[in-house]
Design brief:
Layout lengths: L1 H20 L3 E5 L9 H11 L9 E6 L11 E5 L2 H9 L10 E4 L6
Antiparallel strand pairs: 1-3, 1-4, 2-3
Length: about 110
C-alpha cells in the first residue's frame, strides 16, 4: 500500500512538472510542410499573420510532431523564451483563421 501511494505521488509530481514546462509552449496546426523547412521561421510567419512582431529571440525551439505521413500535415510545437511571448500569440489566435492555421495550448490529456 505504501509503495502504491509513493508511486501515485511520483506520477502526480511528474504531471505537475510536465504541465509547468509546457506553460511556454503552443501547438500550431495547419501550417503546410515543405522539405528542408525551418520551423522557427514558420512560427515567426504565424506570428506575423496574427499581427505580431515576434523575433527569433522570442523562440526557444520548435519542431514538427510525429512522423511524416502522406496527405497529413504535422503540427508544430513551439517553445517560447517567455510566457509573455507565448501569451501574445495565444491571445491573437483568432487572427489566424483566414490562413486556416490554429494555435492551442500544449497540454497533456488527463490520465
Amino acid at each position: 500500500m505504501l509503495a502504491r501511494c509513493r508511486l501515485e505521488e511520483a506520477e502526480r509530481r511528474i504531471e505537475d512538472l510536465d504541465a509547468y514546462n509546457r506553460r511556454t509552449s503552443l501547438l500550431i496546426t495547419g501550417v503546410p510542410e515543405t522539405s528542408g523547412e525551418a520551423t522557427d521561421n514558420l512560427v515567426l510567419d504565424v506570428g506575423r499573420a496574427a499581427g505580431l512582431n515576434l523575433t527569433a529571440d522570442n523562440l526557444d525551439r520548435s519542431h514538427r510532431l510525429g512522423r511524416p505521413q502522406p496527405g497529413k500535415v504535422r503540427p508544430i510545437i513551439a517553445k517560447f523564451a517567455t510566457t509573455n511571448a507565448r501569451q501574445k500569440l495565444f491571445d491573437k489566435r483568432k487572427e489566424l483563421t483566414a490562413e486556416k492555421w490554429a494555435c492551442r495550448q500544449g497540454t497533456i490529456p488527463e490520465r
